[in-house]
Amino acid sequence: MSELLEILGTAEQAAETAVAAIRAGLGRERSISGKGDRDFATDLDYAAEDAVRAFLEQETPEIPLLGEERGRTGDTESHYEWVLDPIDGTINFAHGSPMFGVSLALMRNGMPVVGVVHAPVSEERFSAALGHGAALNKQALHSTGPAELAEAVVAMGDFSVGPDADKRNLRRLATLQRLVPKVQRIRMLGTAALDMCWLAAGRVDAVFHERVNLWDVAAGTVICREAGLLVTDLDGVDYGDGALSVLAANPQIHRALLAELA
After folding, report:
1. Residue 152 class from Cβ within 10 Å (0-12 exposed, 13-18 middle, 19+ buried)?
2. Cβ proximity of 224 and 196 under 8 Å
3. pLDDT, mean of residues 240-260
């Protein structure tokens, strides 16, 4: 078994500790911590992140970790780094929607090489390791999708909140105005991690986010790539650490969308 497959097993176990922490807290009154304009984290975001941190500190103490809620810890000179979103889709989760998941990736020299996204409500675990394919609940994934933009269901990121949101949202509205007549449908699921996984599973045909954080899509990036899809930023550069946007699709749809979005 290769080293990355062994690490994938560790990542799957780590994600399961987060899922267990989330399930243990369901049904209790939620506490909310504000993070800015119309943005927040729940107590279970922190509980899930802390569970993963404790597990990985035992299993891979030499690998630093970047988490959405607690920030970066560990050796900043390492070529490897765990990247964690303990609940991607917190707004969905807090409103009782099942569209949320735990997203954990391993980065090597700034590129994702292992990814796990676990959706607790649907009990779906998407996983991949570089060179070893992608899977949903251990069943292999290989996505093809349509060749024509007019046949594509396209998932996009949420509208912005926070500073300069109005300016960014004008850009999104202009993007929608261009795309709506050219695609089959637009979807906004509220979770970038599951956007990517649904693409790998063929439930949508393309994903783009004009502004996205590494922890939202790092795991989904390796899952999509191992399912046979292209993942770049909106400039057409391979997605990796430092990218601010993401575009994922099969080569034909990717090319067409890049021309519309660039």
Report:
1. buried
2. yes
3. 96
